[in-house]
Amino acid sequence: MNILPDYQNRSIVNLMASICKSMNYTTPYSCYSGLDPQEINKFENIILLIIDGMGYEYVQKEGKNTFFQKYLQDRLTSIFPSTTAAAITAYSTGLSTQQHALTGWFIYFKEIAIAAIGLPFVARAANTPLQLPAKHLLNFPNLYDNIERTSYYIVPQNLKNTAATDVLAGKSNRLGYKNLRGFSQHIIQTVNKNNSAKYIYAYWSNFDKLCHLYGAGGNNTKQHFFELNEFVTYLSNKLANSNSLLIVSSDHGMLDIKPQNTIYMADHPKLAETLVMPLSGEPRIPYCYVKASRRDDFLEYMTKNLAHAFQVKKSCDLIEENYFGLGWENTNLRDRIGDYALLPKADYVFKDGVMGEKIHDFIGYHAGLSSQEMYIPLIIKSLR
After folding, report:
1. 234 pLDDT exceeds 90?
2. Which of 102, 145, 192, 271 is the most buried (most CB within 10 A)?
3. Beta strand 173-177 with 106-109: parallel, antiparallel or unpaired?
4. Rounded CA gap, 168 and 211, in Å?
5. pLDDT band at 207, cuts 50/70/90?
6. 132 closest CA partner among 156, 170, 179, 167
């Protein structure tokens, strides 16, 4: 069963609406009913800790007697697509994909006629930086330039000064770390820095990386999950009585895919002939740019050969059916989602690439609409 984002109350953008409103910044979305902005504002430090890839169902399955389960408040949904590029941007803006238009890992930027990787802000073919300021293509406001608190943006060292981070982090104070110990130290030192009101965004990416490589069911992944439990328990103890609100969540969950359920465009040359360019978006949610003269051929091929794996939807219908969000629409959105989107019917992925690009095979994936991918935990502890 497909799980759609709950943009009315229980999604990332609703959580961010509550947090932003507590700092006198209004987003287009309604506040999450389980977190009163006035109560949030009473805390000297608001700490939002995002563990990339840690889904709600994973916490329920593996998290017995952990900090994560003990302080689990609710089950939220990610946004669509349930992927880092879209969801992490939501955490920095309070906007869903409909507004920020970062529609997946692979994006076709019509403005410069380049197939690119959005967050690293590089061209797909040569993996070279795009030669223009990121703000020209990532045209959305970030919350850090608008909130009424001193803000901190704690990310891996290699992400601290990227072109995309310049847009996402705005005028926040950026801190980079190299390992879990450095991550912990940055958070603790920032909280103890002074008695001013602070908003601290802290992002951990390695759990997602291990899920990709070893699967959500992998022993390496499980071991790291318990390391993270020790880390957040230690963090909570060190910050006891610091007048901090610790909010822990994620951008999406993960789904393990069997090797036989990986579909490669190279095995479907007749389908490739109907397309203007290689697939963009995500292996779980590919966007198809179809030649106008070959649309019937495209639809016929999908029906005859791949209907067991993917449902074909007109991309414009996804907008009308509120998959990408509610409210105003980024003027670039429709250019970045192709003519058709492929929604996985089960645990399938579709891989394609541009010339010179290496196609990576993983075990764990995200971006789809399964409960494993869409549901994320909301963990809250008051540190007073």
Report:
1. yes
2. 102
3. unpaired
4. 25
5. very high
6. 167
DSSP sequence for 67-106? HHHHTEEEEEE--SSBSHHHHHHHHHHS--HHHH---SSE
> Is pLDDT at 126 greater than 90 in this prediction?
no
- Predicted local confidence at residue 1, as pLDDT: 85
CA distances from 140 to 119, 148, 180, 372 (A): 14, 19, 31, 29
CB 213 within 8 A of CB 229: no
Question: Residue 251 and residue 367: Cα distance in Å, rounded?
Answer: 10
How far apart (Å, rounded) are the C-alpha atoms in residues 303 and 338?
Answer: 19
Q: Is the pLDDT of residue 18 over 90?
A: yes
Tell me which DSSP letter residue 199 carries: E
Backbone φ and ψ of 212, nearest 5°: -60, -45
Domain boundaries, the chain: 12-256+369-383, 259-364
Is 259-364 assigned to CATH 3.40.50.300? Answer: no
* CATH superfamily, with its number, for domain 12-256+369-383: Alkaline Phosphatase, subunit A (3.40.720.10)
What distance in Å separates the CA atoms of residue 223 and residue 62, rounded to the nearest whole number? Answer: 10
Instruction: With both helix axes pointing from N to C terminus, report the angle between 180-191 and 219-238 in degrees, rounded to the nearest 10.
Output: 20
